[in-house]
Amino acid sequence: MTMKQTYQPPEISGGDLRVPVTFYRQTANAGPIPGTGRTKVFFALCELYESSSKDLEYVASTTAEHTLTIVFRRPRSDYRIKNSDVFEVDDDLYAGVTFEVQHFAPTSDNKEMMKVVGAGNANDG
């Protein structure tokens, strides 16, 4: 007798998306003073979860203190994420940490959700 074993990942519902996340894009300073600033480009509620070994491969070449994987609803045309974007999560555990986007893709089990892997260090000051 053979047993059919299939893994069913837990579904993510709107109630799981509780942590605010804000994405920023680097912008050049206007005027004669060189440098860059950042502009807020997207806000959403997300779910934080421990990065998998596959997620950790994306940040293996960085010297980041923190690695974070977040999941949120796909923004479609409202926001087109880029690898040059950075994000911050409003969570006490990651207060003062800015994450650089290392990898992003729709989740494998639900194409309506977006997974982002970030690597970050604590902000100075």
Describe it.
- With 125 residues, this protein is mainly beta.
- It has one domain (17-28, 37-64, 73-122).
- The chain has one helix and six strands.
- The protein has one helix at 53-58, and strands at 19-28, 36-49, 66-73, 86-89, 97-106, 113-122.
- The chain has a six-stranded antiparallel β-barrel.
- The protein is globular, with a radius of gyration of 17 Å.
- The chain starts with 18 loop residues before the first strand and ends with a strand.
- This is Phage head-tail adapter protein.
Question: Can you summarize this structure?
Answer:
This protein is mainly beta and 125 residues long. It has one domain. It contains 1 helix and 6 strands.
Descriptive tags:
single chain, 125 residues, mainly beta, 6-stranded antiparallel beta barrel, 1 helix, 6 strands, Phage head-tail adapter protein
Strand order of the largest sheet: 1-2-3-6-5-4
- Distance between the ends: 64 Å
Low-confidence stretches: none
Taking the sheet with the most strands, its summary is: 6 strands, antiparallel, barrel
Task: Provide the structure class.
Answer: mainly beta
**SSE arrangement, N to C:** EEHEEEE
Alpha plus pi helix count: 1
Radius of gyration: 17 Å
In terms of DSSP E residues, the strand content is 35-45%
Shape: globular
Count the domains.
Answer: 1
